[in-house]
Amino acid sequence: MNKSKEKQYEDIVEQSIGVFSELETIVLSIKNNFIEEQRQDPRLTIEMVDKSLELLSSYLARFRGYQDRSKSEWSLEKDIDYVSQTIQSFFRKFDNPFLGSERWYQRIVQLQDQLSEQARELDSLIEE
Hints:
Elements: H1 3-32, H2 34-40, H3 46-66, H4 76-93, H5 105-127
């Protein structure tokens, strides 16, 4: 097994957990300051916030599970491909609902860009 590739995989999973954690913190802050956030963007609903929190919690749990490859029955390449697909599925489900939030929108976009880059890095590991 290529240790370098495995280390890169572990680093990307760790970075992804950091991104999902920060996104969760942002959405919790939006929830905790909901009245002010809704004043900035009247389209925002508590249901949108709760749905985003549920989604982020589920992805955090998944990615924490990906950290320990010893529990995986798959090859490293299959794990890499699966994690990349999981990141891509996140984008299909998390369509940044916080468009009107001047305070958070740009940071959320930056974090989404980081996840995109991590998915590309995973894809390049498969091609090696």
